[in-house]
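Researcher: Re-running this chain for the archive, since the previous output was lost when a drive failed. Same request as before.
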Amino acid sequence: MTTEKRLELDRLEAQTWKRMVRAERFELVDEHGKARAVLALQKNGQPLLTLEDQNGKARAVLCLVESGQPVLGLSDQNGKTRAVLRLQSDDGRPGLELYDQNGESRAVLGLLSDGQPGLGLYDQNGEKRAVLGLRSDGSDLVLYDQSGKLVWSALPVKIP
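Model: Regenerated structure tokens:
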């Protein structure tokens, strides 16, 4: 390749790169220089976007976990995780988990392996108290007492 041709290619490449910024970490800062959003790579090599409030608490986190599946976590003003939306790593089924102020999982909504929706409700001790689900041939509603003992179950009802 001639020197002239190489210089022309270098010039064209430089023009292309002017529109792109590349780095391993980006920080969006407020007027006081405090990071409010961070885009970086995690130790596992997957990307992570963190949005922080004016007090420096992470309020929203979007990342890919090691398996490559996306996870979105939302936190309260104290930095406690209150909701997590994720896709299962085995087949990509969506799931939403809601947490109380103590970090206990209280509700889980998702799709089962057959694609039908399911909802699980848990008490403050993490005990399963109610399960609602649809099946291709009906629906289920199951209730449990505080010790996890079955107290009531609806018979499957055919969905018209």
